[in-house]
Design a protein that fits this description.
Blueprint lengths: L4 H18 L5 H9 L20 E4 L2 E3 L2 H11 L6 E5 L5 H9 L2 E6 L2 H13 L5 E5 L12 E6 L8 H5 L1 E12 L4 E7 L4
Parallel strand pairs: 3-4, 3-6, 4-5, 6-7
Antiparallel strand pairs: 1-2, 7-8
Helix pairs in contact: 1-2
């Protein structure tokens, strides 16, 4: 008798996490959450068979779901303990958002493409998340009404960190973002000390 679809996806998640370990991801909380969350539900149906490959995948509107290694690396860099209020710039498919919601207190996520925001909002609600707030807007402006944030993650590259995001980061807070040009981005981790 063959594997059920659910079992197959579970096995693929386990293999993905083993690969992340080999790539140097050490935070067991991050790995355990990534083994639990069904990444295949966050990608279009016709490419679900690729969901657990370590590669970015198109999700429509010119956007992609980041490769699992980048998601794990950025999440690990945030150093979440479970209580934090997190601001995510770029909801996209909602996969990274779900991971943050498992590891932090509350997640506020901004997406500029209304259709993506709507699909992510619906999917996250279906999966039972109650500590996620998604809104449509310009992520570079942040979410001032909810500031300050203990952690801030930018999922898409920026030439530099916009001032409003600095302003909305709590003292001692941490910001993780890919900074640079179109072809040469580096992952930066900033800690806000004395403003």
């Amino acid at each position: 008798m063959g594997m059920s679809e659910a079992d197959r996806y579970r096995e693929e998640r386990r293999r993905m996490v083993e690969e992340l370990r080999r790539f140097g991801i050490r935070d067991e909380r991050v790995l355990s959450v990534m083994e639990k969350i069904p990444r295949h539900l966050f990608v279009p149906e016709h490419i679900r068979h690729l969901a657990y490959e370590d590669t970015p995948l198109p999700i429509g509107h010119g956007q992609t779901i980041s490769q699992p290694y980048i998601v794990a690396l950025m999440t690990e860099a945030l150093g979440l303990t479970g209580q934090e209020k997190v601001l995510e710039i770029g909801t996209g498919s909602g996969y990274q958002t779900a991971i943050l919601a498992e590891l932090a207190g509350e997640v506020f996520s901004i997406e500029r493409v209304p259709e993506l925001a709507e699909v992510a909002r619906r999917r996250l609600a279906e999966l039972g998340y109650r500590n996620i707030y998604v809104r449509v807007g310009d992520g570079t402006l942040g979410w001032p009404e909810e500031a300050p944030f203990d952690r801030l993650i930018v999922t898409g590259g920026l030439p530099r960190v916009p001032d409003p995001l600095w302003d909305q980061l709590a003292e001692g807070g941490r910001l993780v973002a890919p900074i640079g040009g179109r072809y040469d981005q580096y992952l930066w981790v900033y800690t806000k000390e004395r403003g």
